[in-house]
Write a structure and sequence with these properties.
Mean pLDDT: 96
Largest sheet: 5 strands, mixed
Distance between the termini: 20 Å
Helix content: 25-40%
CATH superfamily of the largest domain: Periplasmic binding protein-like II
Shape: globular
Strand content: 15-25%
Number of domains: 2
Strand order of the largest sheet: 2-1-3-10-4
Order of helices and strands: EHEHEHEEHEHEHEHEEHHH
CATH architecture of the largest domain: 3-Layer(aba) Sandwich
CATH topology of the largest domain: D-Maltodextrin-Binding Protein, domain 2
Low-confidence stretches: none
Length: 265
């Protein structure tokens, strides 16, 4: 009888990509994998309640540490692998001169503010980049210069950036690595010396400790050995989101080509 594993997946494209990599490895091990897609906080709530057995991927310690701590009030968790090393940042298109915009404080300069699109389009409210960006708006007094920060969907954020770039507009994008826009565009990170954007996190698979018994020691070691990178995830994410390729096929092909699968089917 095939053992079923339920994986919680944060409902953003690059998390889908990472979860697809892990799901293909689990399927290769002989498991049946069900993926449940939810926003950040909801994903952790389902891990806490036991609705999902594992979560892909948690960003620790900055972005998701508070959510992990909440789960561990009642359920110990095991961290497995190092899927990539994510971090949040604000970026601008590389056609904006670096000598005019190199750090967040430059956005307050009158000549820069007059050229810059004032609407800063973010993603959903539970994301680390959203929490960090709201704090930056306050600490730098950006609202006083006419900037506004908006939450929204992934598409709201990415489409705003791509439309602005198509028109060579000046725009700020609250972003992170890995993300598929980095595969296609040269996005220059602007410095934030106050440390409001967190640190470089570790993206890991979280497994409920009470579900460890479903795996052999060798299988746990395999999951813990999974190592990808910001660049790999961004490229695979781009293949799905902008080239229209099938998610699980893209990740299966990459895993097979890089020796992660024991079966070639």
């Amino acid at each position: 009888m095939t053992t079923k594993i339920t994986m919680g997946v944060t409902d953003l494209s690059f998390h889908h990509t990472t979860a697809s990599l892990v799901a293909n490895v689990l399927t290769d091990m002989g498991f049946e994998v069900e993926r449940i897609f939810s926003p950040h906080q909801e994903n952790f709530k389902k891990l806490k309640s036991g609705e999902v057995d594992m979560l892909a991927s948690a960003w620790l310690p900055s972005s998701h540490g508070i959510y992990k701590a909440d789960v561990e009030e009642i359920q110990p968790l095991i961290e497995l692998g190092l899927h990539y090393q994510p971090y949040a940042h604000w970026g601008v298109p590389d056609y904006i001169p670096a000598d005019q915009v190199s750090e967040v404080a430059d956005l307050l300069k009158l000549d820069v503010a007059n050229k810059m699109r004032k609407k800063i389009q973010g993603i959903n409210a539970g994301a680390g980049i959203t929490r960090f960006s709201i704090q930056m708006m306050e600490d730098y007094g950006l609202s006083n210069t006419g900037y506004e920060f908006f939450t929204g969907t992934e598409d709201d954020c990415f489409n705003a950036y791509e439309q602005a770039v198509a028109n060579k507009e000046w725009i700020i994008v609250p972003l992170w690595k890995p993300q598929f826009l980095h595969y296609r565009y040269n996005i220059r990170e602007i410095k934030e010396p106050k440390g409001l954007l967190g640190i470089v996190d570790r993206a890991v698979l979280l497994l409920r400790d009470d579900k460890k018994e479903l795996f052999t020691e060798q299988q746990i070691k395999k999951l813990d050995s999974l190592r990808f990178s910001n660049e790999i995830i961004a490229e695979l994410d781009h293949k799905v989101c902008r080239e229209g390729q099938l998610q699980d096929q893209v990740t299966h092909d990459w895993l097979a080509a890089n020796g992660f699968l024991s079966h070639s089917s």
